């Protein structure tokens, strides 16, 4: 008997959840895709964040809903603006790996005031992140619901 309360055991379990247990598929667009293409992709794929990849299929940037809204506000031709002009670009992208803790991801989302992180394959080369997943506030909410069922008094 460990002498730990059920609350302590639950806390420990929550702190052990890894990104790989809750990640979603990433939705990717090419760097030379237009803002119009990205809006269509975001709508059709039903996601709030797109990841932009370069011609080597490595992470180049992130597009949020508001990035696309902002680009749509002027009288610009959305078919002639490449997403690379408006995206948040590397190296200013907050990323995580499959083995990271979900709690750490939640802290990053709050800290940076963003909705999603790309999950990248472990790599030592910062310029060549391969995107293998997506983790969002929705995934974290799902974890919260799963673990609320484990609460015992
Ligand atoms: P929205 O802009 O629709 O409110 P976010 O809060 O996710 O959505 O994005 C806020 C800003 O942060 C956007 O300009 C977006 O490009 C950028 N951003 C989103 N996710 C990341 C990330 N993982 N790393 C760095 N910047 C990001």
List keywords for this structure.
153 residues; alpha+beta; CBS-domain; elongated; binds adenosine-5'-diphosphate; Helix-turn-helix transcriptional regulator; CBS domain; repeat
| Hetero ligands | adenosine-5'-diphosphate
Which CATH architecture would you pick? Roll
Query: Could you say what the CATH topology is called?
Result: CBS-domain
From the alpha carbons, calculate the radius of gyration and give it in angstroms: 18 Å
How far apart the termini lie comes to 18 Å
Category by helix and strand content? alpha+beta
Following the backbone from N to C, one meets helices and strands in this order, namely HEHEEHEHEEH
Range of strand content: 15-25%
Give the CA-based shape.
Answer: elongated
- Mean pLDDT value: 93
Keywords: CBS domain, Repeat
Organism: Pseudalkalibacillus berkeleyi
Protein name: Helix-turn-helix transcriptional regulator
Describe the structure.
Helix content is 34%, strand content 18%. It is α+β, with helices and mostly antiparallel strands and 153 residues long. The longest helix is centred in the last third of the chain and has 12 residues, at 137-148. 23% of the residues are buried. The protein binds adenosine-5'-diphosphate (ADP). Adenosine-5'-diphosphate is lined by residues 49, 62, 64-67, 88, 92-94, 113-117.
């Amino acid at each position: 008997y460990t002498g730990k309360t059920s609350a302590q055991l639950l806390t420990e379990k929550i702190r052990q959840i890894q990104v790989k247990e809750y990640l979603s598929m990433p939705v990717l667009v090419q760097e030379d895709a237009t803002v119009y293409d990205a809006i269509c992709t975001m709508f059709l794929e039903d996601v709030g964040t797109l990841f932009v990849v370069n011609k080597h299929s490595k992470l180049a940037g992130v597009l949020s809903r508001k990035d696309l809204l902002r680009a749509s506000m002027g009288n610009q031709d959305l078919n002639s603006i490449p997403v690379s002009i408006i995206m948040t670009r590397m190296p200013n992208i907050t990323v995580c790996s499959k083995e990271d803790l979900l709690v750490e991801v939640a802290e990053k989302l709050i800290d940076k005031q963003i909705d999603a992180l790309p999950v990248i394959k472990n790599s030592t080369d910062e310029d060549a992140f391969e995107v293998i997943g997506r983790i969002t506030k929705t995934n974290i909410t799902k974890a919260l619901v799963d673990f609320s069922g484990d609460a015992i008094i």
